[in-house]
Description:
Blueprint: H1 3-9, E1 17-20, H2 24-35, E2 41-44, E3 61-62, H3 69-86, E4 99-103, H4 106-122, E5 127-129, H5 131-137, E6 148-152, E7 156-157, H6 160-174, E8 177-179, E9 184-190, E10 193-199, E11 202-205, E12 208-211, H7 217-223, E13 231-232, E14 235-240, E15 252-255, E16 260-265, E17 268-273, H8 299-309, E18 321-327, E19 330-331, E20 338-341, E21 348-352, H9 362-374, H10 380-383, H11 388-391, H12 397-409
Parallel strand pairs: 1-2, 1-12, 2-8, 4-15, 12-21
Antiparallel strand pairs: 3-7, 4-6, 5-6, 9-10, 10-11, 13-19, 14-17, 14-18, 15-16, 16-17, 20-21
Amino acid sequence: xxxxxxxxxxxxxxxxxxxxxxxxxxxxxxxxxxxxxxxxxxxxxxxxxxxxxxxxxxxxxxxxxxxxxxxxxxxxxxxxxxxxxxxxxxxxxxxxxxxxxxxxxxxxxxxxxxxxxxxxxxxxxxxxxxxxxxxxxxxxxxxxxxxxxxxxxxxxxxxxxxxxxxxxxxxxxxxxxxxxxxxxxxxxxxxxxxxxxxxxxxxxxxxxxxxxxxxxxxxxxxxxxxxxxxxxxxxxxxxxxxxxxxxxxxxxxxxxxxxxxxxxxxxxxxxxxxxxxxxxxxxxxxxxxxxxxxxxxxxxxxxxxxxxxxxxxxxxxxxxxxxxxxxxxxxxxxxxxxxxxxxxxxxxxxxxxxxxxxxxxxxxxxxxxxxxxxxxxxxxxxxxxxxxxxxxxxxxxxxxxxxxxxxxxxxxxx
Length: 414
């Protein structure tokens, strides 16, 4: 009987650290903390298994090229974690196939040169390649419109649910415990410090609560008396039926001007993108006990993705769609994670607002959490992610929602 099964049947145990949320971020946080020697962990998830909610909706791409060395190193750490877990018996299904980032304008060419410099500074292998080389790596793609292509050989993709299960198994081996089918009802705070979490199965005492509750991270923060602008924004992608020539080892691709990304999935094409006019929610519009509004496939948006891709991949146009992925990843007004302990409520720690990097960045986010909690002098980047930047300043929900939506809509800097 697994630790998770045992806890489903019994009273919740006390723990030094309680993590709320069993998605990639919560499980990745548990893994990072356990690896750092803090194994007295209880992870609480209200679904009957980890990785069932926002994580299960993810496309699974993992790219490391960013605009700063600090962000690149964070993504590189995630890849190192996926490689490590891939050697275990429960694998994250990590496929290091590389990625092609395709520029269609001179402005984007200049950006790619800057990205290449940032990669060099961070020690990430990346190359600006010509269209012939790009075509060799993705034979079905027409690179005639491409002005530049940035190749990163260590990028890849994973299966999101497999990532959380891999984290869970590794954590249990180190002594962490998981309690599924458990609803959080109250964060108990005494004298300005977290002391316990009350659930539908009783209360568990703790020293730290880590809020990794995804689309419900706002509600969990509210239980601790914090108002944080964590905005769910709709995201969609589709998968086609299998197509000849779509080999499983083809690289992922990103086309910033077209707002598109893609990869091979089960012999078909997974294609997603960033809507220019996003649909977003006020998290106050649904309760902790409920769910965000259901997402129906928006074929105007999805057909637009297909039409845009036809400029470079006409063979994919008109393929039957076998699956539509859709959900509510959360975004913040400034496009940065919310990570770290609150100055208002000691012991209450945020791990949310991941701006669609929750799965791919889960290893790095765990590293940031460890640094924020255990390092007496966290780096400036970690400090910049603190929840205090919102709780100690003035902002409005109307502006926060618009700004978070803007972060989504300009994901590729369009």
